[in-house]
Every structure is written in C-alpha cells, then in structure tokens.
C-alpha cells in the first residue's frame, strides 16, 4: 500500500490566483494528516479512517504534518504513506506550513446542498439525510427520467455506431428511454422537445460528452458532488451542465442555482486548471427559457467562499444572515415537503432548550439534551471520523444556534483575552476570547463577532466534553441586569436619580416634542432605570418618545446605542431626530462603519443606530467606538420594536450598555420564529409579566380617528387604546367640496371604516376601483394611500394592477402612518391562512391609517379565518 507521490505541479492557491480567484487564501476545509512512518512499516495507518490523502517527499523540503492530536516532522527521504491510497484531488498541501491536508469526504457537502443552504439555514447541517420519506414524488420521477434520457442520448452521440440524429430523432429516442408511467406527463410538459432542441444545438456546435455524473471533490471549497454532464467542445472549451429537468423556469435563476453554478465554476477552475462555461439546463420552460448560461459574478464567488469552510461554519454564517434576510414564516410551503423536516424539528427542540420559554424546567432541558444526543447519533452513523467527536458536533451546533458564548478546552498555549480566534480545527466558530482559565486550559469565546479574518486557530481537545463548560459558562450579556432577569427571574429596581441640570435638559427635550405626561415619564426612566420598558400601543408615540430621549442624551453628552430589528426603522429614527432636533444632527449616525475610530480625538458622534443583527456583526466596532469615547459601555441601549427581538439577539448589545430601555408593543409583529417556541417568548414579554414602576404604558394614541382606533382597541387591547385628544378622535379625511356620492362604493368610502367583499373576484380586480374611489372623493396625495396585503402573491398582483400606489406586506408597514389604507385580508386560493391567523399582523395593518381604513375580505372563506372573521364583524359594527 505504500506509495510515493510527487507534488502536484501547482499548489492549489497558485491555481486559484491564476484563475481569477486571486484573493482566495487557501483554507483547507476539514483536514487531518495521516501518519508517517519509515518505508517498511505502515501499520498505524490502518486504524485511521482516512479515505484520501496525498503524500509528499520532496527532496529538499521538510514537511510538518499536523492534526488535532499530533505534530510530526517529516524529514527528507521519509516516505509518507496513506491508506487507502489517496487520490490527488482529495488532498491539499498547505502552502504556509507545508502540511498535508487530507479531506474527509463525509464532511464535504454536495454542491446542491451547499447551494440550497443559502436559502435554507438549516439544510447545511442536514444535508446528509437527504432522502425523501415515502419515495420520490411525481415531479422527481419525471425529472429523473428526463435527466437520464438527456445523458443517455448525449453519450450515444459519442458512439460512432450511432447514426446522426435530428431533433425529431433525438426526441423519439428520449421517449423510448423515458418509457414508463411518467411518459404522458413528460410528453405533455414538452420536456423532450426542449431537451432535443438543446442537445441538437450543442452537438452541432461540436460539443461531445466527456463525462456524466462526473465526480468532483474540492477540499478547498468544501464540497464533493457529481456534475451532471461535462461537455468538451471546439477550442478545448468545457461546458459544465447542471440539469434541472423537474424544475420550473424560475428555478433556473434562483440564488441557489446560481450558487451551484458558481461552485462548479470555482471547483473546476481550481482543480482542473481551466475556466469552464456553466449551463443550467431546464426543460419545462418554453424553448430557450429553460437554458441558462451562468457566468458567476465575483460577489457570488465571494459568498460561496465565505460559506465554504466547514459544515457548521456554513450554517452558522447563514444563520447570522437570517435575522435580516430569511423570513422563516415565508418558507412553510417549502418545509412541508422538505425531507429534512424531522431533523429540523430536532434542531427546533434544541433551540427551545437553549432559549427556554417562560418556565425553563429540568424536564425540558433533559428532553433537549436527549435531542442533542440523538443528533449526535445521527451524525455518527454516517462514518464520522473518530476525532470529530460528538462533542465537537454538538458544540458547533450550539454555536450555530446561540449567538452567545462557548467555552472550550484547548490544547497548546492559551490565547490572551481579546484575541480573535477560530475555535476548532477549521473555521467552525469564530470569536473573541473573553475569558481564560490557565489551570483548566479553558477559554471562553464570544461568538458571533465575525471579522475573524486574522484569527488564530485553536484546536479543541478531542475527548473533552466541551458542552459542559458551554452550558455552565457565563453568557455574554447575562452578567448584567438582563442576566438577573432571565436567569433569576428578578427585575432590578435600583434607580440612579438625575442631577438638576440633567433633569432640566431631559424635560426641555420632552417639552419641545410636546410629550404627554406618560411619554415624559417613559423618557425619564430611560436615564434613571437599569432596565425600563415602554409598552406603547399603536400610534401612542413610541418613536416620538425615542426622539426626545435621543436628543436629551446627545445634549447631555451621553452615549446611546439604538437597536432596531429593521433597517427601515433604524433610518427613520435617525432622520426624525435630525429633523426635529437639528442641534444634535451631527451627533447621531446610523452607520458605524463611517465613524472614524482611528483618530487621536474621540468621535464626535454620541448616538449610534444599528439593526439588531448588524449589532452582532459589528460588535467589535461598537466596542471600539465606546472605547474611543473613553468609556466602558454606552450609557443607554434603546431597543425599538423590542417585541420583535429574540432574546439571544439582545444579549450581545446588552453587554455593551449600562442601561437598557425596551420600547415596543407585544400586540404588534413578533419575532419570526418557526418552531422554537422558546425564542418566541422575548425579553419584552418577560418584562411585562412583572408589575414594576419601570414599565410605562402609553395607551393614548395620536394617529387614528375614533372609529379606526375603536376597531383595534376592541380587537386587541380590551378597550385600552384611546385617542389622545379630541382633534385626533374627530379627524376625517378632507373631502373635495364638489364631491357628491353617486355609487354604493362612494357611500361606503365616505365612512372612516368600510368593508368590501371580493365577491368571487381577485384582490387585484377589486382594489384598483376602491383606490380610484378614494382618490375621487378625498383630497389627499396618492403617496398617502397605501394598500397593505398579508401575502406576497397578492402584493405582486395588486402592484401590477396599480403601479402608482404603494402596495406592500403588513410587515413592511410596521411603524408607518398613512392617511388611507386598504387592507387586503385575504389569502390566495390554496394557501393556508397562517399569516392572517395572527391577530398581531392584523392589528399592525388596521392601525396604520389616520383617517380611512378599507378592509377587503372574502366572505365565502371567513369560516376558515377566525381572526379575519372577527375583524370583519367588528369593522361592520364600527361602521354602524
Ligand atoms: N405627544 C404627542 N403630541 C403630538 N403628536 C404626537 C405625540 N406623540 C406622538 N405623536 C404623533 O403621533 C403619531 C404616531 O406616533 P409614533 O409614530 O411615534 O407612534 P408609535 O407608537 O411609534 O406607532 P407604531 O406603534 O405604529 O409604531 C406621529 O405622527 C407622532 O408625531
């Protein structure tokens, strides 16, 4: 078995540089070095599960071989032996240390899985369980048959004995190959004609098959898989074809398909040393609709490279993006058929354990630990190399799921506090050391800090049970008042009174904004209480109050970190404050990256606004900002729309602030959580369980007239929501003087709240008439009329019919005000009414308008939509 291999002519990073991937440092995905021995012995190697590898023995070089448990030097003349014999594509030589990297194929992902994991945060972890329960669906059968037929006719074309075939011959031949129960559907959907047209074209261009199901393994990219078809063409051109026969045309250009194509492009370039063309071939579209040539963009490559370095890191990084871009609630149709659903549930339960709901109990914790054990077992059944202990798996999973701290026992010298590190033998968990225990060799690492580009690598001791330290370790943000609240169920009541001058400045800012007594109290509490809460009903002036707090703080020279769940809210707060308080306009910024933190003088800015997820990413920059101001922490952390912020997301920014002020409404939109019920229970919910003077309730609202206000008040607030004054209550839209109502529509729209039935039509047919009716009757600018729909499908259809009017989902209107709102509270035919099952979502929609609310419903479906039925009944009562 002993064999001596020569070094590949070019190192992988040289190839990367040569082929348009110049900035790619070589990071070996998951690697472990085999053993070495004198030429006449190789016994030790058999016990290691190394499937692949390479051996080096250059005359001049001394190589350092290292794995997680050993480091050895290979001297000139030594022979390195790997068992079973390696293939060069599986191994990489580290250009810096000269170490031999042997990749573990079972830790590599398929390109499809890796590409899909861009859309589904969990799929990366679950890739190894990719077989549908209950057998393949019809679509899969059709897809597979057509796919194989295409490969077969292309291969047959290589055979000199096959006569030349025109389009009809190709099509007929594929029909023969597809013979079976799915053939009728295949023919009906036009797959074979489309495929035949494409095959005819490439054959005429001189392309011939070089391989089908062509195996490609790329440790550098962290993937292995099979390219559906590799074609060689004139001028030594190579075309890589990804066949997506069962998919609809839009799948051809989806982000995951593009990612897959980019992966092929990169893998081929790196390992074969030539730049290929990549084509995604669909057959369901009309003609060329299904054929897409993909030229990966640098940004796509960069995204992939950012995701590649390990199974866990990929998913973890994706999860960091989740807070902004992946709305899990929009994925159910996908999840319903997703074969990973069972594993998803397991992970969901794990989440519940890590962030338990209101009453964490030992039984739930035990159940969740069982879940982790089960996940470990699953992983281990898949031939996991021994050194990848279940513990390591678990730690990476927990790190994926908890943006907090992990503790790990490390081998070798301990890094110092503050040092950025990568935990594990690859970029599994990035973070910064926040604590170290030299005796126990334990470091505590805060994740996710991101930006670990210059991090040092730490090796975990394989046998150590890191989960124990993880679970008992301190958690970032939990040492302070929030910790006492979450861990001990205790709310701090200590108050730090303000000095006279401070009281005067806060009072002045409140007076400038004409804050009510309750709003003024809420503003003062933000300065005096360790934790304060402003429960503000819709339109009760939460944003208005934040403005006064921020202005007062800026004038007092205090530092404030504002966190909001959305970028829109973030920008809105900053622009409102700048407009209302021009004197502090230079002291507030919503872009931490533009603040100069390197100068010798402290930055001028006092107030930084940032989205909650961005705060995780930019933790280090925020910390540097505070230090540059000569402080240890921000004076106040203000969290707007706090009812939407999950507890773990709140922990890192909390660690950066002396005081926490949460502002929100638990009856408006909540956090987007699919299964982990524990995450649904936010810090805001938790705080409202207390009766404490630190909670201020704002129930007098300044937005809606009395009729609209009554609707929300009855629907959600047990009558607590009231107009702040008579001017607000009696507000009506300004009607054109010469307007005379002549139709039923006009008469309905003359009331502040009205209900329209779809009567068998689609929202896109009904809404334009309603909007025209509003424009005819009321003197308001079109930008003050908005259409709000629960479902994206309705939003798209109505937008197409009403291009000049703002149409969007409920979620994008949270926090907004309009003169008139048309609320389409229907669900598209065939969809489950889940979005409308949420009274919180309905509440947000109906509390946007000042003067006019039009509810569009489908009476024939009210039986299936309990919350909508209630709304319609109350809206009709409101009209009377
Ligand atoms: N004390 C006040 N005096 C006059 N107008 C006020 C006062 N407080 C708030 N408003 C006005 O009421 C409207 C709604 O206020 P704001 O947007 O701050 O409410 P909100 O609680 O943030 O609403 P939502 O719950 O919808 O996010 C704004 O036009 C604001 O200027």
TrEMBL record:
KW Nucleotide-binding (keyword) present: yes
One Pfam family matching this protein: AAA_12
Domain called DNA replication factor Dna2 N-terminal: residue spans: 60-175
Coiled coil start-end: none
Entry-linked SUPFAM superfamilies: P-loop containing nucleoside triphosphate hydrolases (SSF52540)
Single GO MF annotation: 5'-3' DNA helicase activity
Domain DNA2/NAM7 helicase-like C-terminal: residue ranges: 681-859
Swiss-Prot/TrEMBL keywords: ATP-binding, Helicase, Hydrolase, Metal-binding, Nucleotide-binding
CDD domains: SF1_C_Upf1
Membership in a protein family: Belongs to the DNA2/NAM7 helicase family.
Protein name: DNA2/NAM7 helicase family
